[in-house]
Structure formats: structure tokens, C-alpha cells
Design goal:
The complex is a heterodimer of chains A (about 250) and B (about 425). Chain A is an all-alpha fold. In chain A, about 75% of the residues lie in helices and about 0% in strands. Chain A has helices spanning about 1-20, 25-55, 65-80, 90-110, 120-155, 165-195, 200-225, 230-245, 250. Chain B has helices at about 15-20, 25-40, 60-75, 85-100, 110-120, 125-145, 155-165, 180-195, 205-215, 250-260, 290-350, 355, 360-390, 395-405; strands spanning about 1-10, 40-45, 50-55, 85, 175-180, 195-205, 220, 235-240, 265-270, 285-290. In chain B, helix 4 (about 85-100) crosses helix 11. Classes of the chains: A mainly alpha (about 250), B alpha/beta (about 425). The interface of A and B includes residues 153, 163 and 169 of A.
Chain lengths: ~250, ~425
């Protein structure tokens, strides 16, 4: 049952991501299609999670892929409530491609396990994944910032047509999400080191990501950096996550 | 009741003519009262783009001359610019006016409030009351279901909307005005109305700067001290008559160090331009000149016109509903007579049977009353519906006459 629902959810999320990409050309139709994609995808994913919970003996999302799946469900659920207001609807342009990609990674990575890991590993993995997923979201919002900033610089005639969130709003939101995610990642890495995780390539990768986001947050806090430069750093940080194959590589 | 509209608007009369018949609300109310005293119901809608008199009376032809005279008395030259509309056309016109579709800028928001005020100040009865309530409903529906009023329609509104794309909420944002002319003031007012703070007015002539600064409760400075304000401003609006640039890239670049990446939005409304176009290349600086803003406004107006197509459909639907209601009034007297006759017969027959019904208990008597009333109602239900439907299709009078003839209601006219 859970496997059957994976594909409809992925297709719906993918459709939403593509529709958001077409928002510039056909705003009304694309937005409508995108919102329906999000709704249907989320419903299918909810069904999938329920089926997994019923089938498993205990908490079935202790594996990295299960947690990632759960995180995507939570993030899309929040977006459904928050992003459906016209002001933030365009945030889907950043959120849905990331959500579709993470959901696909979770699905192809093995989905939920039938028997959970022990609690320590589950918490460690949950913290790391929450951190990475948060960075992904912050990077997506930063990408939206860079796109909107470029539009405002180029003065297109239809610059007011879409009404995305303001530059300052996007900048602050990306920073807040990155700050919270940074706490999760730090706690996850710390827990891993305390628990005796070997100092391997995955740890080096996690630390590299930690360093990039720490630099971005520190520069903003201490030197008052805001706007384009921290946005590039966020995107670079997410690129590093993707490049190093985290979180998949971490537990794989 | 027939509705008659006589009016003048920006479509056919220049402002020199319109201003002579433009009436403040109190006068408009007095005109409506005066007309209503002789003719029935009246409303006078007077805005900067139109002065229109709406009258409801049994004979449309009879009222047209006195209503026209009210306007011509004030300005005889209006004769060729006046338009006269009746019933359906008058209703559709008012619905379009309330929806902003007849305005100079499609979808402008002020007109709905003006229609409401005119309605409240008018002398209305059932016909005009219904007409204006439906028009206000149509206006609100258009604004709720289309985006016709959402995009800016003037350069200053576009500038403010763009500033919001950078900062979001403008409350507390510091505005630096360069130049103390009318154009600067207009842009400043738009930003001010959205919560921005007009912090500084810089001008070559300090006296004029002070005059404007006082109006906004801000500080006046000479142009020479402009640079010291660049680090603190969020939005700069410039509109001077200077022949050369007032603000150069180097000056802004120096100020950027102190801004720590805070965005700076610059609006150049001057021709020749005041602000160095190179400023737009600087990180965190967004410079829009008058051409950029006019392009944005043109696109925005094009968007409004696209939305106007959907709005027209909504207005037509609402006007159709009003027409159906108005047409049903033609058959209302016949329906009322028919029902009264039926009720008379019912009561008469019950009275005749009184001797036989006298033995019934109160409860049984109520049952008989109820059953006979239900029979009458059921019998008359379908003819009533059919007559109202026929009225909407313009056959109402024929049906009403037929009913009067068939049931012998001629004397009830």
C-alpha cells in the first residue's frame, strides 16, 4: 500500500514543482495547478505514512530515508497552511522543487524500515536530517531572493505582476531557518561524536557544511552582512550538501 | 417604476464643463431631495469624473425634461454632452460605474465609496434603493473576484509598490526627498500613506524644503548636505529641476559601507535625471527612473484591462438579475389582485359553511382554515411563478392582462 502511494505523491509534488516554474508565463493557471499538486501529493504522502505506521512494529521512520520522508511531509504541510495565502504562494517556487527532490531521495533510499533503529541513532539521524532539510529550505528561499533581486535590478515591465514576498522578508526568513537548522546540525554532529561515530568522510562532509553555514551566520551577525552575499553562501552550502551526498552518504 | 438616468461624464465632457456641474455631497443631497419631492425617488452621484442624476418614476418620458433641466440650469453648454439612459441601460451603467469599469483608470477604488455616499445622501425608495444596493454589491463582487484594483495605476503608486517589493511593510522606513516640488510631494504622500516616515527633505532652496518638511514633520536640509543622509535612508525620491546629476555613484558607494548590506531603493522622477543610472549597478541599490516606472504602470494598466473583461461579465450578470427583479414588478399588482380575490372567495365560502362548521372544535376549525389556505396557495403557486418568469422575458404585461381578464380582476386595477 505504502509503495503504491509513493508514485502518486511523487508525481503530484513533481507536477507542483514544474507548475510553479511556469508561474511567470501563466500565473493563474500555473498557480492553480501547483496548489492542487501540493494538496494531492500531501494527501497521498499522508496515506503512505499511515500505511507505513500500520505495517511497522514501532516507529517506522528511524532510518534516514524514513525521517526525510517525515520531514518532507511536515514541511509541505506547513507550506500548505502558510503558503496558500496569496502573499507567500510564490514561495512554492523554492519549496516544492526541494520537497519533490527530498521526497524522491527518501523514496529511492529505501523508505521506512520495518523495524526501527535504537533511540540514540534515531535522535542523531533526526537532528542531522532536520538540519540538512532546513538548510535546503533556507537555500531555496535564498535562491528565490536572488531571483527576485535580479528582477528588481533589471526593471521588467511586469515586475509587480507576481507579488512575491519582499526581499527583506526573504532574507530574514532564510536567516532564521538557517539559524534554527544550524542548532539541529550542531546537536546532531555533537551527538554523533559523543556516541563514538568514527571520524570518516561523512563526518568531514557534515563538518564542511557546518562550517559554511556557521560562516554565513557569523558574517551576518558580526559584520552585518545581509542580502546577496549571504544568499550566495546559503546556496553554496546546500550545493555542498548535495555534492557530498549527504545525508544519504552519512548512514549509507 | 421606471429608472431614468441623465448625466455627464469624462467620456463626453472636458473638465471645464464637468467642473461647473460638480456638486459637493450636501448640494447633491439637496438636488436629490428637490427632484424626489416632485418625481418620486432621486439620487445625485457627483464625482470629479461625472455628475449623474438617477430618478425612479412611473413615466420615464415625463421625468426626462425636468431632470435634464437641473443640469442645464447650471451649465447650458452641457446640452450636447449629456447622456440619457433608461431602465436596463441605466442600471447596467450604474453597475459599471460602481465596479470602476467606467472610470478613467479601470478598477479605481474610490468610486465605490462615492456611489455609497451618493446613495446614502439620496432620496431613495424601493426602486433606487434596490438599484444602488445591487450596484454596490456588484462593485464589491468585482473587486473580490478579480484583480482589477490590485495593481498600481500611477507613477507614485508604482514607486510605492516597488518599495514594498524590497522592504515589505513600509512602516517606519526612512524616506529622503530630494527636491521640494509637487512631484516629490505626491510620491512622498503615497509612501507616507503606507506608513513610511518622510525623514528628510533636501532642496537647493532651503525655504521650500522647510515648507514641505513641516507638512510631514521632517527635517529640511540644503542639497550640499545630502550625502550625510545616505547611510540612514531606506528610500530616496528625487525630483528636482537640476540640469545635472544631483547624486553620483561614488557618493552612494561611499555610503554603502555604513549601510552593511541594507537595501536602498531610489526613485528618480526628474527629467533630466537627478540620479546617476550607474547607482543601479551597486549591490543592494535599486534605481528606477521615470521611464521604468511608466513602463511598470503601462503593464499594470494593461493587466487591469485584462481583468476588466472578467469584471464586465460579473457586472452583466448582476445587471441581469436586477432587470429580472424590476420586470417582475410589472406583474406584482396582478399577482396581488389574484391572491386577494382567491382569499376573498375562500373566506366567503367558509362563512357560507359556518352553519355546518359550527359544531367543530377549535382545533378542527383551525385544520379546516389551514387546509383551505393550502389549497389556494398551491393552486396559485405555479401561475405566480410563471407570471414572474414571463415578466423577466418581457411578456409580463400580456400575462398580467390575461390573468385579470380570466379571473375578472379588471375592477381591481
Amino acid at each position: 500500500m505504502a509503495e503504491l502511494l509513493f508514485w502518486p505523491a511523487l508525481i503530484a509534488y513533481g507536477e507542483a514543482a514544474i507548475a510553479y516554474g511556469a508561474v511567470l508565463r501563466r500565473p493563474e493557471l500555473a498557480t492553480r495547478l501547483a496548489i492542487w499538486g501540493v494538496r494531492l501529493g500531501w494527501l497521498a504522502q499522508t496515506g503512505m505514512l499511515v500505511a507505513e505506521a500500520v505495517r511497522a512494529d514501532g516507529f517506522p521512520w528511524a532510518s534516514w530515508s524514513g525521517l526525510l520522508n517525515l520531514f518532507v511531509w511536515f514541511a509541505v504541510g506547513v507550506y500548505l497552511i502558510w503558503g496558500c495565502s496569496p502573499r507567500y504562494r510564490l514561495l512554492g517556487l523554492a519549496v516544492m522543487p526541494a520537497a519533490a527532490a527530498l521526497f524522491a531521495i527518501a523514496g529511492f533510499g529505501g523508505a521506512a524500515s520495518e523495524h526501527g533503529y535504537d533511540l540514540f541513532v534515531a535522535v542523531h539521524v533526526a537532528l542531522l536530517l532536520s538540519g540538512f532539510a532546513g538548510f535546503a529550505l533556507a537555500a531555496a528561499i535564498s535562491a528565490l531572493y536572488l531571483w527576485q533581486e535580479r528582477r528588481l535590478k533589471r526593471h521588467p515591465a511586469g515586475v509587480l505582476r507576481l507579488g512575491p514576498p519582499s526581499l527583506l522578508g526573504l532574507d530574514k526568513l532564510a536567516n532564521r531557518i538557517a539559524a534554527v537548522s544550524f542548532v539541529f546540525l550542531t546537536a546532531g554532529i555533537g551527538l554523533g561524536l559523543v556516541g563514538g561515530h568514527p571520524f570518516d568522510l561523512a563526518v568531514v562532509g557534515a563538518l564542511a557544511v557546518w562550517c559554511v553555514f556557521a560562516t554565513a551566520l557569523l558574517l551576518r551577525r558580526e559584520l552585518g552582512w545581509s542580502g546577496r552575499r549571504p544568499a550566495y553562501l546559503m546556496v553554496a552550502g546546500f550545493a555542498l550538501v548535495a555534492l557530498l551526498g549527504l545525508p544519504a552518504g552519512h548512514l549509507g | 417604476m421606471k429608472i431614468t438616468l441623465v448625466g455627464v461624464s469624462h467620456h463626453r465632457a472636458p473638465v471645464e464643463l464637468r467642473e461647473r456641474v460638480a456638486l459637493p455631497l450636501e448640494q447633491a443631497s439637496a438636488v436629490a431631495s428637490e427632484l424626489a419631492a416632485h418625481l418620486g425617488e432621486a439620487v445625485c452621484l457627483s464625482t470629479c469624473n461625472r455628475t449623474e442624476l438617477y430618478v425612479a418614476h412611473d413615466d420615464a418620458l415625463e421625468v426626462e425634461a425636468p431632470v435634464t433641466a437641473v443640469l442645464l440650469e447650471r451649465e447650458p453648454e452641457l446640452a450636447n454632452a449629456l447622456y440619457r439612459l433608461r431602465d436596463e441601460a441605466a442600471a447596467l451603467h450604474l453597475f459599471r460605474v460602481a465596479a470602476g469599469l467606467d472610470s478613467l483608470v479601470p478598477g479605481e477604488g474610490e468610486i465605490l465609496g462615492q456611489v455609497r455616499k451618493a446613495f446614502e445622501a439620496g432620496s431613495v425608495g424601493p426602486a433606487l434603493g434596490r438599484l444602488f444596493r445591487e450596484a454596490l454589491h456588484a462593485g464589491r463582487k468585482v473587486r473580490a473576484q478579480t484583480a482589477i484594483g490590485e495593481s498600481p495605476s500611477s507613477v507614485s503608486a508604482a514607486a510605492a509598490a516597488l518599495a514594498q517589493q524590497v522592504f515589505g511593510d513600509l512602516r517606519g522606513r526612512r524616506i529622503l526627498l530630494i527636491g521640494a516640488g509637487e512631484v516629490s510631494e505626491q510620491a512622498a504622500r503615497n509612501l507616507f500613506s503606507r506608513g513610511a516616515e518622510i525623514a528628510v527633505v533636501a532642496n537647493r532652496t532651503l525655504d521650500r524644503a522647510q515648507e514641505l518638511a513641516e507638512r510631514f514633520g521632517s527635517v529640511a536640509l540644503p542639497l550640499e548636505r545630502l550625502e550625510e543622509q545616505l547611510g540612514r535612508a531606506d528610500v530616496i525620491v528625487s525630483s528636482t529641476s537640476a540640469a545635472e546629476l544631483v547624486l553620483r555613484r561614488e557618493q552612494v558607494e561611499r555610503a554603502l559601507r555604513a549601510r552593511k548590506g541594507r537595501p536602498l531603493f531610489l526613485i528618480d522622477l526628474a527629467v533630466p535625471r537627478d540620479l546617476d543610472p550607474e547607482i543601479n549597478q551597486l549591490t543592494g541599490c535599486y534605481l528606477y527612473d521615470i521611464d521604468d516606472l511608466e513602463t511598470v504602470v503601462a503593464e499594470s494598466l494593461a493587466g487591469r484591462r485584462r481583468e476588466a473583461e472578467s469584471a464586465e461579465a460579473i457586472v452583466a450578470e448582476e445587471a441581469e438579475r436586477f432587470h429580472a427583479w424590476q420586470a417582475s414588478l410589472d406583474v406584482v399588482p396582478a399577482i396581488a389582485s389574484l391572491r386577494a380575490r382567491a382569499e376573498d372567495i375562500r373566506r366567503h365560502e367558509l362563512a357560507k359553511a359556518e352553519a355546518r362548521l359550527g359544531e367543530l372544535s377549535d382545533a378542527e376549525r383551525r385544520t379546516v382554515e389551514s387546509v383551505t389556505a393550502q389549497i389556494v396557495n398551491k393552486l396559485l403557486h405555479l401561475p405566480t411563478i410563471r407570471m414572474k418568469e414571463a415578466a423577466a422575458g418581457a411578456d409580463g404585461v400580456v400575462y398580467a392582462d390575461a390573468v385579470r381578464h380570466l379571473f375578472g380582476l379588471e375592477d381591481d386595477r
